[in-house]
Amino acid sequence: MIVHTILYVADQDRSTNFYKQVLGEEPQLHVPGMTEFKLSENHILGLMPEKGIKKLLGSKIPDSFAASGVPRAELYIRIQDPKKMFDAALRFGAKELDPIKPRDWGGCAGYVMDHDGHVLAFAT
Q1: Could you report how far apart the first and last alpha carbons of the chain are, in Å?
Q2: Domains, the chain, with CATH or none
Q3: Rounded Cα–Cα distance for residues 68 and 79 (Å)
Q4: In the chain, at which residue ranges do the beta strands (DSSP E only) sit?
Q5: Contact, 69 vs 109, CB < 8 A?
Q6: CB half-sphere exposure, 56, CA atoms < 13 A
Q7: What is the pTM of this model?
Q8: All residues at 6 or more sequence positions from 68 whose CB lies less than 8 Å from its CB, including other chains
Q9: Which of 8, 47, 50, 81 has its CA 20 to 30 A from that of 71?
Q10: Distance CA 100, CA 108 (A)
Q11: Angle between helices 82-91 and 12-23 (to 10 degrees)
């Protein structure tokens, strides 16, 4: 199974640059309407302009512009050194929600919000 997580974004180029800096890698696909980063062998992160989902699904889906900036998804990334990505996210414009610290469920995690309101957690 290969999973694609697709985040709807207001500005594809701005979001591509943000995730390129945070993830420390180039996208494997970057064309008008979709950017993809390979997070692992079985997980792709996609960035689609908000207009794209409306064009694809039409009136069957609420207008995503109404929710722009409102948290709509969380991307929980478990890595060896979460501080590195956490700090990079802050440098490139993310808003800090909660610092990296021990969590009740084990390990440590810190939370930020990207330009579009998606919550990112960097955890061990």
Answers
A1: 24
A2: 3-123 (3.10.180.10)
A3: 28
A4: 3-9, 29-31, 34-40, 43-49, 74-78, 95-102, 108-113, 119-123
A5: no
A6: 10
A7: 0.86
A8: 10, 50, 116, 117
A9: 81
A10: 6
A11: 150
Contact 2, 44 (CB under 8 A): yes
Amino acid at 23: L
8-state DSSP, 120 = E
Residue 106 gets the label, from left (phi > 0), alpha (psi -120 to 50) or beta, of: left
Angle at 34 between CA 29 and CA 35, to 5 degrees: 45
- Provide the 10 A C-beta neighbour count for residue 11: 14
SS3 19: helix
pLDDT, one tens digit for every residue, the chain (124 residues): 999 999 999 999 999 999 999 999 999 999 999 999 999 999 999 999 988 777 777 777 776 666 666 666 789 999 999 999 999 999 999 999 999 999 999 999 999 999 999 999 999 9
DSSP states of 27-55: -SEEETTEEEEEEETTEEEEEEEHHHHHH
